[in-house]
Amino acid sequence: MKTIHALGLSEARSFHPSAAGEMQGARRASEISPAAEASAGNGPQDPPDPEVPEKTSRRRFTAGYKLRILQQADGCTQPGEIGALLRREGLYSSHLVTWRRQREEGLLKGLTPKKRGRKKKSVDPSAVKIAQLEKENRHLKHQLRRAEIIIDAQKKISEILGIEQSLEDLGDGK
Question: For the chain, what are the domain ranges?
Fold first, then answer.
């Protein structure tokens, strides 16, 4: 019989299934894969978890921690000790490089993590007081406007009903 190497691609596909044993590892289309057989015998499988994992927060290292790790790394003399230290602490070699550079430059402030995001504006105490007084002024003007509307409405009602009001009744105090 012909081997697969001697056959063309179209001939290999139309090759008789009874000669599958001679095909050196080729599988028939009707044959079930070993992975499918293994999963079929185990029963129902749990569907994958559709929950999206929460994004992990960015790690921040204190200056003391950085200096302690650098001292431990400087004390490593045997081959592989630094790698073991990095694996144990969950760090990368780039951390050591950056921290050593910062230590050499004397940037102890640089060893502490910088606060990310917008900087807080300094609050001027007089500005707070001014804002409070302006708010109170707006509130009082609004109350005065409402009182004037009520007084005007009372005057019109008294004119319509023919009731005379004196200045003492109006509350002007004159």
Answer: 63-111, 125-170
